[in-house]
Design goal:
The chain has 14 helices and eight strands. A hairpin with a 6-residue loop joins strand 4 and strand 5.
Length: 453
């Protein structure tokens, strides 16, 4: 009976061949954990890993919760767009900033690699939107229960209730009307492995040190910790208007923020970033090219002293440097790296491979070499000296030839006009004769000048 529908026959695809594999206890436990994480049995996991090298794992409970949060942004964005079309952009500022804060927080929690303490300076908004976000005022109360967040500390505020906090911030911001966005917001995120040591007291201590080192201890601030994710983090809401009415410029200094986070990471013994090279076998296309360029460029910097030596080191790995020039000039303002068919900007390779960072590095190395006392070998000095003399000699010969040609041209012109302008004692007055003698004296002095050999 011929079936036109239904499952096709397995035929040659039927799995009737068997391979016996042996594992030790550690390997077996690892396969057991990985297969369970991927939602497969051990045989299926090993087969797919051996043939395809791509395993799509199931989402963890934390990732599912974060995706659920992202889904809830859809209706909010539709409402914001509708309100903006009907009432204008000013009516949606607070709601838009609230959504931006939520997206930023989700992206921070979705980072898969454990890293050191990170301080992220977020976009400014109103105090109402900032306080509502950190206190989960407008979140789903069924998910974000009161035990998912806690106020760890504050300074300069009249109370701990929502209206009291917002009123305190807004009243101080009235001291300086020139600051249009007085609400500051910073998140401090830590590695998941630091969670056991980060009690509320310890996190408050770190946050207070961060505020002091950033120079924010002279304004109002609020510290709120969130507990709904595996990675511990807290939020700092502060006033860009200081207690003296002046602007707190340090509140958005990203360079200082980076230095402070590195210092606190060392002080409290927090988890350091893992400097492991990626598994190139699991990368493809532009991502693999980017990883190979990063590894090769990092190694090349160890032996490079300038752009030329850096390019030579990269050429050994078949990587070329492509400069970017300012429009209409020869001034270099950017750099890219070419590996095969892939061209990657320096900023995409890594922070240290941006043009300005590489150029500063090579310039500093050049200045340090110039500032050091010269201790060159005798033959090296003679080579440099001969090069200088050679250049000076060629320059002098060129100038002398030009002078001789000019004199010959002048003499020819004088002969063509019948000697009317020839230099002689019978046809010149005293002033003309003095000028002629001075010119002749200069020419003889030039001809008698010793030449470089």
């Amino acid at each position: 009976m011929d079936k036109s529908n239904g499952r096709p026959r397995l035929g040659s695809a039927k799995r009737d061949r068997y391979v016996k594999i042996s594992f030790n206890d550690g390997e077996y436990d690892r396969v057991d954990i990985l297969s369970a994480k991927a939602g497969m049995n051990k045989a299926e996991y090993v087969r797919i890993r051996a043939l395809e090298d791509v395993i799509i794992a199931f989402l963890s409970d934390e990732e599912k919760a974060l995706i659920h949060e992202l889904k809830k942004l859809g209706p909010n964005l539709n409402q914001i767009a509708h309100t903006g079309n009907t009432e204008g952009l000013t009516a949606i500022e607070d709601k838009a900033n609230f959504c931006l804060d939520m997206v930023a927080d989700i992206l921070i929690n979705l980072k898969k690699t454990d890293t050191k303490m990170i301080g992220k300076i977020l976009k400014s908004g109103s105090f109402g939107s900032k306080v509502d976000y950190v206190t989960r005022e407008k979140h789903d109360k069924r998910i974000f229960t009161p035990d998912t967040w806690k106020i760890l500390g504050s300074d300069g505020l009249l109370g701990t209730k929502r209206r009291q906090i917002i009123a305190s911030f807004e009243s101080q911001s009235m001291l300086n009307h020139r600051i249009s966005n007085p609400a500051g917001h910073i998140t401090l995120s830590f590695a998941a492995e630091d969670r056991p040591k980060l009690s509320d007291k310890k996190m408050l201590q770190i946050a207070r040190d961060y505020i002091r080192m950033m120079g924010l201890d002279k304004t109002q601030w609020l510290i709120v910790r969130h507990y709904e994710t595996d990675k511990p983090h807290c939020h700092i809401v502060f006033n860009m208007v200081g207690n003296n009415g002046k602007r707190m410029e340090c509140g958005r200094n990203r360079y200082k923020n980076k230095k402070v986070c590195e210092a606190l990471t060392r002080k409290y013994g927090l988890a350091l970033p893992k400097q492991e090279n990626p598994d190139l076998e699991k990368l493809h296309g532009i991502e693999r090219a980017k990883a190979e360029i990063r590894i090769a460029a990092t190694e090349a910097l160890k032996n490079a002293r300038d752009w030329n030596s850096f390019a030579r080191e990269l050429a050994k790995k078949n990587i070329s440097i492509i400069p970017k020039y300012r429009r209409g000039t020869t001034e270099m303002q950017g750099v890219s790296f070419q590996l095969g068919d892939y061209k990657v900007k320096g900023s995409d390779v890594g922070e240290q491979f941006k043009f300005r960072n590489l150029d500063s590095l090579f310039n500093s190395q050049s200045h340090s070499r110039q500032s050091q006392p010269r201790q060159t070998q005798p033959h090296q000095a003679s080579v440099d000296q001969s090069a200088v003399f050679s250049l000076a000699k060629s320059t002098m010969e060129t100038l002398e030839k030009a002078a001789e040609v000019t004199a010959d041209i002048g003499e020819s012109i004088c002969n063509m006009v019948g000697g009317a302008f020839q230099l002689g004692n019978g046809h010149l007055d005293e002033n003309e004769q003095a000028a002629a003698n001075q010119l002749l004296k200069r020419r003889r002095k030039r001809n008698n000048k010793p030449r470089l050999s």
